[in-house]
Amino acid sequence: MDRREFMSKTLAAGAAVGLASAPAGAARDKAVRIVGVSCSPRKGKTTATSVKVALDAAKSVNPRIETELLDLGGLEISGTPGGTTSADLPQIWDDFDVVVLPKLRDPVPDGLIIGSPCYFRSMSALCKAFLERIAVLREPKLLLADRPVGVLAVGAYRNGGQELVIEQIQAAMLCHEALIVGGKPKAHQGATLWNAYNDDITKDDFGVATAKQLGIRVAEAALRLYGPYVKSDIQTGLK
Known about the structure:
Distance between the termini: 32 Å
CATH class: Alpha Beta
Helix content: 25-40%
Largest sheet: 6 strands, parallel
Strand content: 5-15%
CATH architecture: 3-Layer(aba) Sandwich
Radius of gyration: 19 Å
Order of helices and strands: HEHEHEHEHEEH
CATH topology: Rossmann fold
CATH superfamily: Flavodoxin domain
Oligomer: single chain
Structural class: alpha/beta
Shape: globular
Number of domains: 1
């Protein structure tokens, strides 16, 4: 048996094992839904565009991937009113309850990409409010547990606090027992973008590349977790 034949048979056997060990009831054609959340008060601007770039890259990985952008810009979302458990929280009935929560609970996304602008080297107030309010997804059970989550940040400078913002959001998502996903080289921690071109974030070639890498990694993780997946499932990617 030559090397090529050996590798072919080995890969085929590996794929068969992967399919056999897939979760019960998992279907090869099951849709995998990834939701991107833009936590900038500026609707449709650089953060929303960056999240959309990541979602488009995720969608390119496999036809089973379905994506949705949830742009929080312009929505009225208050922070938590307090309480030790979600049952103690008074009902606010703002845009979070009406617009946002249904997208995250019915059904629960198979993966999340969360983006925030950097304000004074921290996440936006809107992002903080969003992270506080999704506490309702922790009880009576952790709905986001084991869901892959990637994070991106947009700053006014190349080193404008993007990695700090990524860490802050990742720390919050660990409270949900989510699976934190980074990118590939140049975006190991998450995607970092620089708004240096009058709100045309697409001109930041380096930042856009990190957003694409992040989207690809979240998609790959979701495919592995929520249905049979082998490397040949990937149709496109970045070199």
